[in-house]
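RECORD TYPE: inverse folding
INPUT: structure tokens
STRUCTURE:
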């Protein structure tokens, strides 16, 4: 993963729990990298170790850490680093979700070695959509659920997210039903 992911996790931990908590997380994870360079690649294992260590140090499940990290990413990291791209995604929650399949295509122009997830939408109504999520990386469904929750907050249209299909032996993707109270205009 690119360093921007680990930097964002660092920012979330420091903002919510302090510098000492971040140092404890790095120590628990066995990560001695002082500064993550945003546009440099790091082994995925580094990020997974940091999430696991966050879980242990902060006494949260890994799923809770990933969910909160997804919210942090969409509410803090994305606006600061990708504001224009985020704004180009749509003016409403339904519009943004429908444009999500194209979002990482634009980001890939900035990060040529990016291995982005792939999204597809189906069964869209004015109050819901089914979102199919495919990734080369396992275990990130809670992160996506946090992203979706953060998008609901960003667009002032709170969401309910229900995972209908779980990636595993039978499926190589996850499917989520995303619902909101009505058209987000």
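DESIGNED SEQUENCE:
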């Amino acid at each position: 993963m690119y360093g921007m992911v680990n930097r964002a996790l660092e920012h979330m931990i420091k903002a919510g729990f302090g510098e000492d908590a971040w140092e404890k997380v790095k120590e628990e994870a066995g990560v001695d990298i002082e500064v993550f360079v945003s546009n440099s690649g790091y082994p995925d294992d580094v990020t997974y170790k940091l999430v696991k260590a966050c879980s242990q140090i902060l006494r949260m499940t890994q799923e809770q850490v990933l969910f909160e990290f997804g919210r942090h990413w969409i509410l803090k990291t994305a606006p600061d680093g990708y504001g224009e791209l985020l704004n180009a995604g749509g003016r409403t929650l339904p519009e943004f979700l429908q444009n999500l399949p194209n979002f990482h295509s634009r980001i890939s122009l900035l990060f040529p070695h990016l291995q982005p997830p792939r999204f597809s939408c189906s069964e869209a109504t004015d109050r819901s959509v089914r979102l199919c999520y495919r990734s080369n990386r396992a275990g990130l469904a809670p992160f996506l659920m946090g992203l979706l929750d953060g998008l609901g907050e960003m667009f002032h249209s709170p969401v309910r997210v229900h995972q209908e299909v779980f990636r595993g032996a039978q499926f190589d993707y996850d499917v989520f039903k995303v619902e909101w109270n009505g058209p987000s205009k």
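NOTES: The CA atoms of residues 22 and 182 lie 40 Å apart.
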